[in-house]
Amino acid sequence: MAAQEEVFVGIPKIPYSPNAGPGDVMCFKHYNAEEVLMGRKMEDWLRFSVCYWHSFCGTGADPFGSPTLHRPWNIGTPMESAKKRLRAAFEFFAKLGVKYYTFHDRDMAPEGSTLEESNRNLDEITDLALQLQSQTGIKVLWITCNLFAHPRYMNGAATNPDCHVLAYAGAQLKKGLDTAKKLCADNFVFWGGREGFLSVHNTDVAAELKHMANFFKMAVQYKEKIGLKCQFLIEPKPKEPCKHQYDYDAMSVIAFLKHYGLESHFKLNIEPNHTTLAGHSYEHDVVMASAFGMLGSVDSNTGSPDLGWDTDEFPMDIRNTTLVMKVIIEQGGLQPGGLNFDAKVRRESTDLEDLFIAHIGAMDTFARGLRNAVRMIEDGLIAGMVKERYSSFSHGIGQRVEDGAASLEDMEAFIKQNGEPNVTSGKQEKYASIFNRYI
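Above: the chain sequence. Below: its structure as tokens.
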């Protein structure tokens, strides 16, 4: 990129400096992209991605205050600004050393007064994106359509009671899928920001769920028609902006997909901040989605547990990243998904370098989590203890239960012969103590 176009002036490509001091925040102390762990490079285990909406479209505004993040790319007409923003983003990706980015269609290009104008805007900006991808080798981890912000979607998109609105969402989605093919996106995400209800008094829940399923079926059909080779992902969230959202958590989405016969076409994009809003632990939905073979990608952020809303903070808790990476390693990785930083700098963090500091800190936190998880798995201590805890299912009546070959009559006969079971300690404190040794 030409010097006169440089936005992040004075910031070189972020180096790996493992011996740097605690005050050195513009370098990686733990993330070493080329380091090989369990037969795979660190960058391949982690597959980091920068999100476009928070990092380059965010203004720092909140319901109580005006924008605080005055970025140099927000100058000129909407299309001029969009091009400056895109070039600045690729400069950031290259200097940070990430290989992927994610975006909503309306992040990338401004919405026009008609669908046709919006599509032309998107075509023009994605032509530039394609050039920048070719020049840098940086790829799209996933694309999604913003089917929640415009007033037309105030009562939902795929679940809107007015089919005219659903049709507009379908037309926008069609263009989004075309764009995904154009930019060779690895994934396409569906986040139902307005797919839910504020009041059951005016809502036909069964009809809305059916319409949403049919909307997804249209997406599957069009994907196959155009030969789009990417993974479809659904992102759960329990509330906000709706009082209750249909994609409440991992199990709700999995049940929905199985009920409507869509489970072979979709996996889940889990955002831990959403998981905690549902009342679960940080790692809960990652664990549950993986257990069903449905974990496709992770929106790597966190929230403030003492607040009841989606704060989209950068993940800095090593315990959390260790638990997440343990699950990811055990399922063999996230490809073609990844770890997308759906997080925003605080509205008080107004310097351009704060964007780097936040991402560097989060990437180091995940690198430490990866190393911790690798040691834990290679040691095999906890895995051995868990295996021993369930050892009764490896023989005899337990094996028959495991194989689905036992009956209630078998249960009764076993108890009559063997009597009352022994009380066996779960050793919860022992597990926690051993886990802490790896942190």
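Residues 143 and 377 are 33 Å apart (CA to CA).
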